[in-house]
Amino acid sequence: MQHLTLEDVARLVDEPGTPDEAAHLASCLICRRELDEMREQTSLLGSLDDPELAPDAWFGVEKALRAERLIRDEPMRPAARFAGGWIRIAAGIALFVAGGAAGLYLRGQQTSGRLAAGPETLRGAPVTVTAPRHDAGQYVSAEPAPDVDMGGPMVVEPVAGGGGVRLASTGALATSTPAPRARPRPLSPEAASAERELVNAEAGYVAALQRYASIADPQSGADDATRMAALERMIRSTGSALESAPDDPVINGYHLAALRERDALRQQMSSAEKDWF
Amino acid sequence: MEDSELVTLARSGDGGAIRALYQRHATRVFAVVRRMAGDDALAEDWAQEAWVRVIRALPTFRGDSQFSTWLHRVAINSALHGRRSRERKAGRETVIDDSHACRPTGGDPLLRMKLERAMARLPEGMRRVLVLHDVEGYTHEEIGEMLGINPGTCKSQLFKARAKMRSLLSPAGVREEEAQTCST
User: Fold this and answer.
1) pLDDT in tens, B114-168
2) Cβ contact (<8 Å) for B15 and A46?
C-alpha cells in the first residue's frame, strides 16, 4: 500500500482530500496518525509565545530615530520627562509672567515703572532675583507673599569660596525694607483673582529658587555635574519663558543670572580639571 | 491612551508617544522579524529598521486599519527588505545560524523550543511562508502579495515547509541536528 507523502498530509491539514486520499486515510492508521500530528504541529505554531526582547533594545531604536531627526528632544516635553521638580519651575515662571502681567495691568504705571528698572533693582517687588554670586554682598530680598508662610524674607546669597549659592530665610540680610503694598481702592473680583494668581506664582517662583539653592548649596553634597545639569535645565526653562515674554525684565534677569552661574561653574570645573595632579 | 492618540503625537516627533507605542508593540514586532530572520542579532537589526520605517511613515498612516496591523505589515516588509539586502551583499542565500534558541514562556517549553529550532533550520523561502501563514495567520493571497509570488506557489511552499518541519522534528531529524551540533 502506497502511503501519502508528507506534503500531501500537510495539504490535508487545510484542504479536503481527494476520494482516493479519503479512502486511504480511512484504512491506514499510520497516515491518520501522521495527519493528526501534522495538525498538532500547525496548531502549536499558531500558539507560540513571542520571544523575549532585549530590555535595552529601545536605546538602539531611539538612537536610530534621533539620527534621522524623527524624534524630538525630550526636554521639549518636560511633563513626561521631568515629572518632578523642574516642571514646577517652568510652571512657576509661566505663572509669574501671567500673574505679573495681570498685576501690572491692574496696578498701573507705579508698579510698571518699578519692574522696568531691571532685575538688579527689584527690591520691593513681590519676588526678586539674586545678583550673580561673584558680586558678593549684593543681596536682593524677596518679600514673602501675604498668605504664604516663608518664614521671613527669602535671600539668595553667594557662598564664600565659590561653592555656589545658598538660600537663606532671614530678615537680617535684607538690605532694604520692602515698600508696603499700596491698595488705593478695593479690588474687583477679577483683580482679586489676579492677585491670588500672582501670590501663587510668587510662591512657585520662590519654591523654584529654593529647589535650585538646595542643589547649589555645597552642603547639599550635590556635585558639580548635578549643578551643571540643573543650571542647564533652568536656562532652558527661562529660555522657553522668554520666547513668550522676550522683554520681561524679571525673566531676563533670571535667565542672565543662571547663564552667569553656569559660566562660573564651567570655569570652576575647568580649573579643577587642570589641577587634577 | 489609545494608539490613535499616541500616533497623532508621535507624528510630530513626540518622544514620549513614540516610546509608548514602542513599549506597547515592540514584542510583536520583534517576534515576527525574529522568526523570519532565524537568529537574534539579525532580528534586532530588522526590528530597529522596522521602527525607523514606521515612525518615518507615520504621516502617511491614514488610520484606515488598526495601527498594530499596519505596524505588523511594515515589520514584515522590513524583514523582507533586510533579507533582500543581505542576499545582495552575500550574493547567495545565507545559511542561517540556529545556535540562538528563543525563550518561550508558556506551554511545553521543550516542544516549543524544538519547533522554534526546526523553523530556524528551514530554507529561507519555506520559513517565510510558514511563519507568515502558520504563525502569523496571513492568507495565501496576502502572503503572495507581500512576497511577490502567486498564491499557488505560496501553498506549495507551505506544504513543503510543514513536511520539512515534520522531518526535522522526527527522531531522525533530531539525531541529525545533534550530530551537526557535535561536529561544529
Assistant:
1) 999 999 999 999 999 999 999 999 999 999 999 999 999 999 999 999 999 999 9
2) no
Q: What is the ipTM of this complex?
A: 0.78
The amino acid at A2: Q
Rounded CA-CA distance A201/A207 in Å is: 10
Q: Comparing C-alpha atoms, which of A209, A187, A176 is closest to residue A103?
A: A187
A217, A224, A247, A212: which is closest to A89 by C-alpha? A212
* Cβ within 8 Å, pair B159-A52: no
Cα-based distances in Å from A249 to A25, A130, A203, A221? 91, 13, 19, 33
For residue B34, the chain A residues in CB contact (below 8 A) are 51
Which domains are present in chain B? 1-94 (1.10.1740.10), 103-184 (1.10.10.10)
Spatial distance between the Cα atoms of A262 and A265, rounded to a whole number of angstroms: 5
Q: Is the pLDDT of residue A21 over 90?
A: yes
- CB-CB under 8 Å, B56 with A53: no
Cα angle, residue A117 at apex, residues A95 and A127 outer, rounded to 5°: 35
Q: Which residues contact A233 (CB under 8 A, 6 or more apart)?
A: A75, A82, A86, A89
Could you tell me if B46 lies within 8 Å of chain A, comparing CB atoms? no
Interhelix angle B3-11/B67-90, nearest 10 degrees: 60
Question: What is the tens place of the pLDDT at every residue in A84-124?
Answer: 445 555 555 665 565 556 555 555 544 444 333 334 433 33
Residue A22 makes CB contacts below 8 A (sequence gap 6+) with A16
